[in-house]
Structures are given as C-alpha cells and as structure tokens.
Amino acid sequence: MAVSNVTFYERVEEALHDRQLQTALDISTTRFTTGRKNALAALPEAEALRDHARRIRAHTIAHLDRYLAQFADAVEQTGGQVHWAETAAEANHIVANLALSRNVKNVVKSKSMVSEELHLNQTLEAHGMRVVETDLGEYIAQLAEEKPSHIIAPVIHKTREDVANLFRRKLQATDEDLTDVPHMTALARRVLRNEFLQADMGVSGCNFAVAETGSICLVTNEGNGRLTTTTPRLHVALMGMERLVPTMEDLGVMLQILARSATGQKTSVYTNIITGPRRTAAGQPVEPDGPDELHVVIIDNGRSQILGSELAEILYCIRCGACLNACPVYQQIGGHAYNSVYQGPVGSVVTPGLYGLDPWHELPQASTLCGACREVCPVRINIPRMLLKLRSEAVEAGLNPGWLKWSLGLYRQAVVRPSKYHFGSQLTSWISQKVADNGWIKNLPGPLSGWTDHRDFPALAKKSFSQRWREERNQ
Amino acid sequence: MTTDIKTVQLFVTCLVDKFFPETGLAVVDILEELGLTVEFPLAQTCCGQPAFNAGFWDDARAMARYTIDVLAPSDAPIVIPSGSCGDMIIHHYVDLLADDPDYAAQARAVSARTYEFTQFLVDVLGVTDLHSTATGCIAYHASCHGLRGLGLKTQPRQLLDQVAGIEPKDLPGSEECCGFGGLFAVKMSQISGAILQRKLDNIEASGADTITGTDVSCLMHIAGGLRRRGSTINVKHIAEILRER
Q: Which DSSP string do the residues of chain B spell out, in sequence order?
C-alpha cells in the first residue's frame, strides 16, 4: 500500500484545523456511540452474547484452515467457484480475468473494505471497464474522488452541503433534486438504478461467510447489496480469509451484535444470505433471479502473517467501527489522517500487521491507551495490548526518536538507584521552582515543549513526599 | 471495618512523591485514622509505566524487577493512590515478567496483593463513610486505567457520596479520556491538546468548582489545561477531599 509524502503529523494538523470536519465528526461519533449504548442496553443478554461472539471468533480463527476448506467445498457444491489469492495483485488479476473472459463492460460494487485494500477499481478501469460504487456513502466518496474515512460510514467527514455541491457538479442536480436529504437520495437512487440494470458484473464484499453451508452474508441498509448480487449475470464476492463463522447458528449470534455495535440498529435493513448462483435444472433456471455465476475470491493479503503473530486476535474483528466512534483520537482527527484503509484503533493494529510497521509506525503511537476501544468491541479484542506490542516492536526496530531512547535509558538508570533518583529529582525540583510562576511552568524546553504548547506544567514540589516522610518519621 | 488487616504498604507513585506530596499525606492520614499501620519502603521510585507504554519493555522490566524487590520484604496489602500505576503493577508486571524465572512468581504475588486506594477502602476494607466534611461543588473525572483496567466504576463515587457538605455535580463525558496518555501528551501533543479541550469544556459546563479523581496524572493534565485557560476551578485528588474534616 502506498504511503503518502505528507506526514502523519501534517495530516493531523490539517484535520484538527478543519472546522467542518470537527463538527461532522462530533455529530456522527456522538450519534453512533449513543445509538450503540442504547441498543445494547435494550438487549438484556448483550454481555453474554458478546462473550459468545468472542468464543465463536476465537474458535474460528484458531481452526481457520479447517473452516476455509469446509467453506470452499460447500461453495463448490452449491455451484459457485472459489479462488485463492495470496496477495492483492493476485486478487486483482483473478477478478480482472473473470471480467475480461466474460466480456464485462460495466461493474457495480457494493461496499467492500477488502476491495479498498486491492485498489480494485483502478485495476478494472485500467482494463476499460466502468466501475460504480453503489453504497451511497461509497458512491459519494467515488464522485468526490476521495477515500472512505470510516469503516461503515465512508463519508462521515462530509456535510449535507458538501454532498449537494458534489451532486450539482457531477450529476447536474437541479435545485429541486437538492431540496432535502430524501430528494438527494432519490436522485442517487435514480442514477444508481440505471447502473444496476446495465451492469454485467456485481462485486460485493462479505460480512460473514458460513463454513457449513458455503453462504456469503451481506448486511446493508440500502438494498444495494441485494441488487449488486442478483441483477448482473456475474457475481464476484471478495472475502478476507478471516471472515468465516462455522455455522448458520453462529451467524445468528454475530448478526445480533453487529448492527447494534455499528449503528445502534437492532438489525440492518437488509440481511442477505447468498448460497450459490441461480439454480438451474436441465440447463434451465429454476429460480426467478440471481447471477449465472458466483465466484468467491478468498484473500490473504498479509492476514497469514497476522495469524502467526501476537496480533492474531485482531482477526476476530467484525468491522463494526465501534472502536473508531469511541476513540478520543479518532473523534479528533477523523479517518483520513490515518491514511490507511482501516482507521482508528483497529486500523492502527491491522495496518502495520498487513503492511509492516516501518511505514506505519506512527499509528500505534496515536492512542492514549484509554481502553475505550476494548470496552466497546463486540468481540472484546484487547486492542490496547496490541498497540503496546507494536510499540515495543517499534523500539526493537529503532523507529523511535533518539531523545526518547536516550532519556528513558537515563530514567531507568536513575529509577533503579534511589540515591541517584532522589538527587536528580531534587535538582529538577530546584530548577523547576526557579522557572515556575506560582508553581506552574509555561514553557518547557526541547521535545517537552509539546506539553506546554497546550497546558501549563507543574513545578516539582519543594519537598517530596519521601523527604517529608523521612523527616517527620525520623527514618 | 471487619478485616484483620493491620498493616499496609504504601506505593505512593513517582508523581505523587515528586509533584503532589499532599495527596500522599492525605492517603496516609486516612489509612492511619482507620487504625492501619502504614509502611513506606523508602527505596521506592517509579513503577516503570512510562517506559512500558512507550514500548521500551527492557527498561520497563528492569524497573518492574526493582519495584518488586522494594516491595518484597513485607506481605502486607500494597495500596497505590493511582489506578494507572495500579493497573501497571496488577496486570502488566505479570505479563512483562511471565518468562522471567526469578520474577514471574513474585510478579504474580505482588499483583495479587496490590490495590488502588479507593478500591482498597471500598472492596477490601468495606468502608465507604470516612466521616469527611468538605465544601464546594465537586465533579468526578473517571481516569481510564482505573475505570477500564481495574473496574473502578463505583468505588470513588461511593466514597464521595458519603462526604458531608459538598454538592456533587455531574461531569458530562466523565468516563471519556482527558487526552493525557503519558508520553503521548508530549509526542502527539496536538491531538492530546485537542482531546483535553473537550474535557475542559465539559468541566466548565458542569458548574463544578472542584474536579476530583483517583489519578494525579490526569488531574495534573486537567489542572494544567484549566490554568492555561485562566480558569479558577480547583483540582484535587480524591484523598484530599476524603481527608477533610
């Protein structure tokens, strides 16, 4: 994955000064976190369900090879075909070949995070195909030539006015089309309906895959997933290799917590369970609709590497986005500052896991370790623990600033030698009292100035607790 | 008080020791008033959390082993006026030293007898009423590591509920992070500062004249922000309020 020339810090600075983004983030993350809280509070067995869901995911990931084989067999038994892609390039190659060999010109896509990993649209467009995103948020992002900034709400960063201007520019929307949100969605619906009817190939993601039946489960709120997977003659489902659950019953558990954690809905508006292509008998279709062919592309793209590491637990993730909404850092900087397909706390683990720590070493540092992500995660992934692990790997790889290594090394030397430690702090106390105004310092030197850019720093006490203890208790 | 605990060991934390000794003295007063003998191992320094959170685990291990040695001579319960350092000793020491043949068992033993201050009062001693009388409109900020690491959801509030003379105020978003995050506040100060502003807005909206909590680290961050804004709102560790008579 390409790393931008603009640094993480520059993107953060830009995001923090974007007032419109700040307002949009405030409104949407508050709405999602409140919705989630209320939805789970209304479900008496929520905590037990989360435990159960975690067990299902842990079991599946621990036996992934077995369930992948079972799933692949089941897909083929229902008339679908399975393709294995080790890398993004292989996956692109498979999808492009499927499309080219079947003379595909127009492609519709429902929302798929894994397709963002592949940059599939560029690949297909390079072969002369038209690719249209059909999830409203993804469609808006595509029209704006932007990347999604949230796992489930791709244009969380945009206001209604932004979208209205975009529709005016790109879709020649009239004032009447832009009267209000229902009119705007109606316009998008008219445009997209045409795209569905023209398309020869539908590309979907996969929220869950069911190993025992070979089914693909897609959840959407707009029905675009259903049209993408039934109208065109060819359906290609892109699936990250960890998306499995063993049984239909397990799927039921996951679906009970997914929408609640994501948007606060009891269930998403459309839940599609797709098992095989349109059925035929004696060469004739026996079902009213569905594609002639179903292809499932199972994509590794770095996941095996995560599976074999201490980060394996991050593969339990069901992509609900709750950790983004709850994260105080995401709430401030939004998704684009991360510059990665997956943002927020989960993205700060997955991205270095998939693509290596070196180009992405800032992401695990972008956390207060407050634990809000772990608290809201429907499958209770210990994200802070993995951020810490990545920070320790960054130290081993020498990816930290020199001053930090040097000063922490010095600090350690002092901490394990109390006489040095107390002498050093007495000296610091004396200096800090000299430079402080009424006990507080306005400007710290060097790398510490970051603190005093935003708040005052206290001077050390004239007499420490241990000094006073020693003096008062004659020890 | 119905336990047979006679003695506690105080691990006061580096920040309380060097910056906020009054908090440590308040903790000692409260524990002694409950009839406990407070041991304070003078060789104690820092639990090593700054190095651990920054990823410098070898340095953190050295500091963890040192602290375990300092605490080893007694088997009394260890009381810490900080949820964050408590979480470090209770949870992360055990992980950090799991493969250390000399310290793994000791880390588990120290973990098992370590308590954050309010947790010790309420959960171990079963005390909520310290016969305190204080003044002011007080709002409580729940520090993250205590709240989510140690499950300190009700204990501090139960203690504050029993303080006579104060008017409790609701702090909007009281369980949201203040943005401190240790070295994060320095390394990514612009994000940390932005999170802090939200906390300060909520504090000012709460109508409180005093903010309290269980961790002087977050309180130092909040106080520094309030001061920079020119606010007159006071910031006090919970022990200092509970000690007032």
A: ------EEEE---HHHHHT-HHHHHHHHHHHHHTTPEEE--TT----SHHHHHTT-HHHHHHHHHHHHHHHTT--SPEEES-HHHHHIIIIIHHHHTTT-TTTHHHHHHHHHTEEEHHHIIIIIS-------EEEEEEEE---HIIIIIS--SSHHHHHHHT-EEEEEE--TTTTS--S-TTTHHHHTHHHHHHHHHHHHHHHHHHT-SEEEES-HHHHHHHHHHHHHHT---EEEEHHHHHH--
